[in-house]
């Protein structure tokens, strides 16, 4: 399949799955977490897919790779928020583990894509 848009990228599609899963999970978080964990993990999850898309639209491979690195950081942020949510009893492990697995998948794809971009830029 030829890539014609960031929407064709498996990494972006999986990042969107992470964001949608985070939204579904956090809808049941306590209302006093609305401006805390709920907001933080949602923004971080959205940031992953958004940075993949924004980087794709840049005119240089270096800029693209930088946006992908920001997306990597956001993946780690999502993971940390989910781990904290489990630790403080806001979320259950069986609900978070599938999202954490998707985060691992996205992280691996981002690393591979960054390496590929850097190889082709040399």
Mean pLDDT over all positions: 95
Strands, total number:
0
Residue share in helices? over 70%
Instruction: Figure out the total of helices.
Output: 4
Global structural class: mainly alpha
- The SSE order reads HHHH
Radius of gyration: 15 Å
The rough form would be described as elongated
Which consecutive residue ranges, at least 5 long each, have pLDDT under 50? none
The main pleated sheet reads as: none
* Cα end-to-end separation: 25 Å
Strand content: under 5%
Main attributes?
122 residues, mainly alpha, 4 helices, 0% strand
Indicate the topology:
Blueprint: H1 10-26, H2 37-56, H3 61-87, H4 93-121
Can you offer a commentary on this structure?
By secondary structure, this protein is mainly alpha-helical. Helices cover about 75% and strands about 0% of the residues. It is built from 4 helices and no strands. The mean pLDDT is about 95.
